[in-house]
Write a structure and sequence with these properties.
There is one protein chain. The chain has 251 residues and is α/β, with parallel strands linked by helices. It folds into 2 domains: 2-204, Rossmann fold (3-Layer(aba) Sandwich), CATH 3.40.50; 221-251, no CATH class. Helices cover 27% and strands 26% of the residues. It has helices spanning 37-53, 70-77, 96-110, 129-137, 190-196, 236-246, and strands at residues 2-6, 9-11, 33-35, 57-64, 82-87, 114-118, 141-151, 154-161, 164-171, 174-178, 201-204. The chain has a 9-stranded mixed beta sheet, with helices on both faces. Helix 2 (70-77) links the parallel strand 4 and strand 5. The longest helix has 17 residues, at 37-53. It is globular, with a radius of gyration of 22 Å.
Length: 251
């Protein structure tokens, strides 16, 4: 099977949000990056699907800056066979449509049987790129998948919804977005890390359309008021209730 796992590099959880000087974006100076959490699940499922099929190839596909490939190599160390990075120095400011259009154009040249993505990127939290990619390709899209079986050119998935779990069937090729519970991403062993250094990683120039969404302003939320201790012992109870009623107004 020809399988693609789309991943996004996102700022690490230790990153501190800082607006840019013009107030229309976030300053990424000094940021450390990681693979988006749900995309790690997508990579694991891609590798597991190839292993279950007994043959095939897993390509890691991403957008990012030239040379920003450390996290992509980590995906190769976990079982990816090769990688393609669409080099775009403005990748962090692209809206979901522009990103989806660039990815779908590249995927159209790769002709995969399956495309795995995380259900949502942990920086923007849009959950829009996967369904948009499927729409541009004209393929089925199954989102929030927590269980998956692939056989005879078809797939059966359990999907997490607000009403519970739904079981759906779909034909290939298709786009699948991955939810927590689908699998447990593996750690890269020393053998995989060493092998990843020799696996092919191509940097390509993507066709990226202009954003349709423009950011008007980015600003940090107001600082919280400093907390205080209300009373001591049992005497604190009425004082706390009074403060919640008259100051916080939550009772």
């Amino acid at each position: 099977m020809n399988i693609v796992a789309c991943v996004k590099r996102v700022p690490s959880t230790e990153a501190v949000a800082k607006p840019t000087a013009d107030g229309k974006g976030l300053d990424s100076t000094g940021n450390q990056y990681m693979v988006s959490f749900y995309d790690e699940i997508a990579v694991e499922e891609a590798v597991k699907t190839k292993e279950s099929a007994g043959s095939g190839e897993v390509t890691i596909l991403s957008m990012g800056t030239k040379g920003g490939t450390k996290e992509i190599r980590e995906c190769l160390a976990k079982g990816g066979d090769k990688a393609v990075v669409l080099v775009d120095e403005e990748w962090e400011s692209r809206d979901a449509r522009a990103t989806a259009k660039a990815l779908s154009t590249q995927l159209g040249t790769m002709a995969p049987d399956l495309v795995f993505m995380g259900r949502v990127a942990t920086d923007r939290d849009n959950a829009a790129v996967g369904p948009m990619v499927a729409t541009y390709l004209g393929w089925p899209c199954v989102t929030d998948v927590v269980s998956l079986e692939i056989a005879d050119g078809k797939g059966t998935a359990k999907v997490e919804t607000e009403a519970g779990l739904e079981t759906v069937s779909f034909s290939l090729p298709a786009v699948v977005t991955c939810q927590k519970g689908l699998n447990e991403p593996r750690y890269a062993g020393l053998k995989g890390i060493m092998a990843a250094k020799k696996k092919p990683l191509e940097e390509a120039a993507p066709e990226v359309p202009e954003n349709q969404m423009q950011v008007a302003a980015v600003e940090l939320p107001p600082e919280r008021k400093e907390g205080r201790i209300v009373g001591e012992g049992v005497a604190a109870v009425p004082a706390l209730i009074e403060a919640l009623q008259n100051e916080a107004k939550v009772l």
